[in-house]
From TrEMBL:
Residue ranges crossing the lipid bilayer per the database entry: none
Protein's name in the database: Adenylyltransferase/cytidyltransferase family protein
Annotated keywords: Nucleotidyltransferase, Oxidoreductase, Transferase
Pfam families: CTP_transf_like, GFO_IDH_MocA
Species lineage: Bacteria, Pseudomonadati, Bacteroidota, Bacteroidia, Bacteroidales
Keyword Lyase: no
Species, as recorded: Bacteroides thetaiotaomicron
Amino acid sequence: MKRVITYGTYDLLHEGHINLLRRAKELGDYLIVGVTSDSFDKGRGKLNVCNNVLERVEAVKATGYVDEVIIEDYLGQKIDDIQKYDIDIFAIGSDWEGHFDYLNEYCKVVYLPRTQGISSTMLRAESQDVFKVGIVGSGRIAYRFVPETKVVNGVDVNSVFDPNNLNADVFACKFGLKAYNENYQQFLSGVDAVYVASPHLSHYQYTKEALEAGKHVLCEIPFTLSGTQAKELYDYAEAHNLVLLEASKTAYCPAFCHITTLVKSGVIGEVVDVKASESKMVESPARELDSKQAGGAMNEHAPLNLMAIIKLLGKEYSKVDFYSKIENGVDVYTKVNICYPHATASITLGIGVKTEGNLIISGTKGYIYVPAPWWLTDFFEVRYEDQTKNKKYFYSYDGEGLRYEIQEFISMIANNRRSCYKLRRRESIAIAEIIEKYNKKEDVTIL
């Protein structure tokens, strides 16, 4: 019996898929099809899949060409499967020509002709709603945002608002957008959703006005510097059936999502300590060193690092205290200690002091180590006393990483989903409350 194997996502199964499966079946007597899992697709940065894995498996079986379906769930699985199932021929579409030649060591590799004029990407583009998005602010993060939207279906960035006329025009010219610099309401009238990437102190007002205009909002970190303001905005969005999401990019990336799942499932036992750190060296003049623009290590770095702690340990802490080194009115270094009834946590932040930038989650059975820069997570390791049990995990962190938060935001709008388990509103509010406590200089020790 000649055994053939092929792989694919098979999203929105179409004539091209069916033709490829038919051709693969004709190569032998028994056809195995590997269908990618949902987590594997997201881990590879494939964010636009419409059908879940169960739907895709059933669609593949319904073609009648398949003898067996397996799930592809990790990099390197193709070699394992070829040996496990005693495969004679590996078949794949011709658009992958040459990419899988390395498999010739294990079996014959055949590239099959593709059906022209149809693809899952085309079908998704035809069937999916497209939401017009406007950007508030034209700084560094906004320049990274626009290219990231190109890999997420359903997004059309059409305009930018910036009170600085020159900045708005330069940004708009670069990306082919319409620029606004005076009338924010006019800008809002031409979009369905807003990405707020303006200076820290303006986040609250721009977000509030956008929500009041009936627009969905994705707001950069720090979402607000006040827990009261954060709660007010979330309450308004909920009452008016609008999506409001904090753009804490790490919270949405595949690797960090898997870390939280592993921790919650108890693989390292009961968590007793979490340590996170982040720093960058900044030279004046810079916004990060300007007290009038809410500069400082805490306002700059705390949102991501507090997010990790709140996600892993919750928001019901019993005590928090701060230690800071202040220069020219801003903290160039801050350490935050957070006590829980059964755990401790700390974050170490710097814009004038350098630290490693890793994340360590300690438990009663083992610990998870995420190397620097942990907030760009693409690799982590679960470690135990018995090192033979250690396990390494690798994930894609594609582009600037903003695509994961954009995909979540657009998915929430398209599916009328107002809550996001990856970063819940109560967690976002808790982060803002701790930052507000620091800025009020409650329990702050000056070094």
